[in-house]
């Protein structure tokens, strides 16, 4: 709801996105069009488009370890998902600190979960 409100306000020229919701995070399954949508929104709002993906080197900066992931995977799907689930949030938090306003495009292999 916040996303659509901010987008409508910004596109109508009433208010700048950075004053209400400076960061938009787009996520969903592989192949649904997240990247083209993020590109359109970032151009319309004149903010950076940041592509985040679990394959990126940034994961090591937030504590991801291949051996720990494999150990979690060996302990079952629930442990594997719980291990992976912590990184998208940490990654997004790190990038939000670096960009005053941006559209973040999460790769389709990213799991977004609430903690």
List segments where confidence is low: pLDDT < 50 over at least 5 consecutive residues: 1-18
Query: What is the C-alpha radius of gyration, as a whole number of Å?
Result: 16 Å
Helix and strand content put the structural class at alpha/beta
What about the largest sheet? Answer: 3 strands, parallel
Strands of the largest sheet, in order across it? 1-3-2
How many individual helices?
6
The percent of residues in helical segments reads 40-55%
Q: Mean pLDDT, as a whole number?
A: 75
**Global shape:** elongated
Instruction: State the separation between the terminal residues, measured CA to CA.
Output: 20 Å
Strand tally: 3
Elements, N to C (H/E): HHEHEHHHE
Beta-strand fraction estimate: 5-15%
Total domains: 1
Features:
single chain; 115 residues; alpha/beta
Task: Write a structural description.
Helix 5 runs antiparallel to helix 6 (77-98). With 115 residues, this protein is α/β, with parallel strands linked by helices. A three-stranded parallel sheet has the order 1-3-2, with helices on both faces. The protein is built from six helices and three strands, in the order H-H-E-H-E-H-H-H-E. The chain is elongated and about 45 Å long. The model is unreliable at 1-18 (pLDDT under 50). It has one domain (2-106).
């Amino acid at each position: 709801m916040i996303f659509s409100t901010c987008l409508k306000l910004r596109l109508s020229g009433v208010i700048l996105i950075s004053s209400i919701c400076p960061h938009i995070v787009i996520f969903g399954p592989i192949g649904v069009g997240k990247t083209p949508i993020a590109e359109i929104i970032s151009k319309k709002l004149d903010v950076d488009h940041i592509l985040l993906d679990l394959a990126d080197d940034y994961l090591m900066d937030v504590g991801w370890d291949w051996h720990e992931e494999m150990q979690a995977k060996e302990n079952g799907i629930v442990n594997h998902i719980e291990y992976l689930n912590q990184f998208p949030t940490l990654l997004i938090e790190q990038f939000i600190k670096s960009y005053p306003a941006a559209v973040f495009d999460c790769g389709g292999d990213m799991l977004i979960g609430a903690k």
